[in-house]
Amino acid sequence: MGAYEDVFRASVADREGFWLEAAQALEWETPPTRALDDANPPFYRWFPDGRLNVAHNALDRHVAAGRGDQAALIYDSPVTGTQRTYTYARLTDEVATFAGVLRAEGVGVGDRVVIYMPMVPEAVVAMLACARLGAVHSVVFGGFAANELAVRIEDATPKVVVSASCGIEGKRVIEYKPLLDKAIALSSHKPDSQVILQRPQAEAAMGATDVDWAEAVAKATPADPVPVKSTDPLYVLYTSGTTGKPKGVVRDGGGYATALAWSMPHVYDVGPGQTIFTASDVGWVVGHSYIVYAPLLAGATTVLYEGKPVGTPDAGQFWRVCAEHGVRALFTAPTAFRALKKEDPNGEYATQYDLSGLKYLFLAGERLDPETYRWALDLLDIPVIDHWWQTETGWPIVADPAGIELLPIKPGSPTRPLPGWDIQVLDANGRQVPPDTDGAIVAKLPLPPGAFPTLWNDDERFVSSYMSAFPGYYLTGDGGRIDSDGYVFVMGRTDDVINVAGHRLSTGGMEEVLASHPAVAECAVIGVADQMKGQVPRGFVVLKAGADPDPDELRAELVQMVRDRIGAVASLKDVAVVAALPKTRSGKILRKTMRGIADGLDEPVPSTIENVDVLDDLRSVLRKG
Ligand code: COA
Ligand code: AMP
């Protein structure tokens, strides 16, 4: 039996013992005596009697252990020409001071703080400062528009919002403050104050309840870490569901910190003093877990990169960062590699840098297509590790565990489930399917530490969205299969969620925007395959009787509406006017059939279709697109 099998079996044979031992990697104010509270399924709680402070574990603990001079965070920003290294001692001080700022603004245990910031160190400082106070942060990705920010402010009811005057998107400066002001105006909940980091690229106009970051820090008294219950929320991270209303994924402190601390040596093979570069964004779960919390909990060094894989200014930046900062593990989304491949097909930039320290490439966020896998492997000649996870799970579900044993790779599969994950594939009736048969991928409850215990203020939606399709199982929303060697193949979402350039978006949310146009009677948005972004959304609208807008103007208006209300990141560039949408006799839009046609598949026409004639119209629209 291999090392992976041994570890996996140990986690099944004695779940309590396995996770209690993993929890010992942390410093607890009150160490847990029990691993799992399973009294109220499907609401499981990890380490119910433990108390800790996650920021203390990420920072102060390492300073106390004598590692204060080691680099904790390296900020590398080609878009501003800045590089800055924060040692553990400095980061601890800055976090303690900013926690003092938040405390002075009235933030205490359990209060929410919304963070709407670009990829600057202050975003990490703000997150950890919340954790230090036992407050709950909710980071909103900078690419979302005011309306999306407003929805999150409304739901999280923050006491304070922390933001910056601007972000830098390639060569463009994006002013954040007007978006924040608009979001607060739209939301019925008003925060008490906004702490604004002024950046020189665009200074923000300040209002009566705005607080200048630098001024507040200059007069703040540092705050000590506040131990809280393991089960208390550390953060809420909103993610796209099937409707326009995002789901507030709740993360507890103790279970999450335990899972992340376990994952660093076992999955990523990165330990104290070693460097991980996660090229994502703090607005996504990958950023929360592997830019911020996991590297710092492990005493490693994390790189915070403000830039893109290409164009800021060239396709050599990832390799420059890896070489300059001695990166051991690079983690990004396959789409970033497709962008690199397009710009630099022969990988010439990579040959200009010393990449001898780079030991692993980890990819996640969308399916890793075998072609991109092979290109990355040929280029780097190191293990290219596809791993599958979700905002809900907080850490990988299925991965090649580099720090335990590298399992043989089958391109197209992220390999096998990690300890704690009992992954199965079920048919529509909830029966396990034989190997190599497609179905719904589910995880048998309880989920391991780190996975979400519920949705923010919405236990009911937690149960209805995830736990009721197959009682006793978590419905991942992904479809796929498991082969006879236990390898999991994740083929794509079975719901209205799409992955655009590694960004998770809701087609339902885009449909709500299109449907609000006065000329639109009904609409559908589907994700279609895209060579670069994996998927992109395409919209189809049917006009109201009597509406006769100029088609080009209408299309431009609809595209702009989605950009204004959801954000540029939605990438909806293409909306077609069609005579009708294909529907079942009961009136359900046949989105799967539409997707199949768009992707050029030989999609069977369902017998339940009412208006088969519209498919020809649709085929010709899609061919033109
Ligand atoms: N703030 C404001 N706008 C943003 C933004 C942000 N933080 N992030 C993206 N946008 C904008 C982009 O500028 C772009 O605007 P445009 O339509 O005016 O050009 C739009 O949103 C779409 O962005 P994106 O889909 O990211 O496309 P891109 O062409 O700018 O970049 C890649 C393509 C592949 C380079 C980029 O998507 C990438 O690096 N992806 C990696 C994804 C990732 O890290 N995912 C996290 C999971 S690991
Ligand atoms: P997010 O919640 O933004 O992390 O997106 C989660 C979704 O991304 C999953 O449900 C999958 O559809 C997709 N995903 C993430 N990682 C992978 C992967 N390695 N292979 C296939 N799909 C993935």
Automatic annotation (TrEMBL):
Domain AMP-dependent synthetase/ligase: 62-444
One family name in Pfam for this protein: AMP-binding_C
Family annotation (SUPFAM superfamilies): Acetyl-CoA synthetase-like (SSF56801)
Domain of life of the organism encoding this protein: Bacteria
Domain (Acetyl-coenzyme A synthetase N-terminal) ranges: 4-58
InterPro entries: ACAS_N (IPR032387), AMP-bd_C (IPR025110), AMP-bd_C_sf (IPR045851), AMP-binding_CS (IPR020845), AMP-dep_synth/lig_dom (IPR000873), ANL_N_sf (IPR042099)
Domain AMP-binding enzyme C-terminal: 510-588
CDD domains cross-referenced by the UniProt entry: PrpE
Family statement: Belongs to the ATP-dependent AMP-binding enzyme family.
Protein name, per record: Propionyl-CoA synthetase
Organism: Pseudonocardia ailaonensis
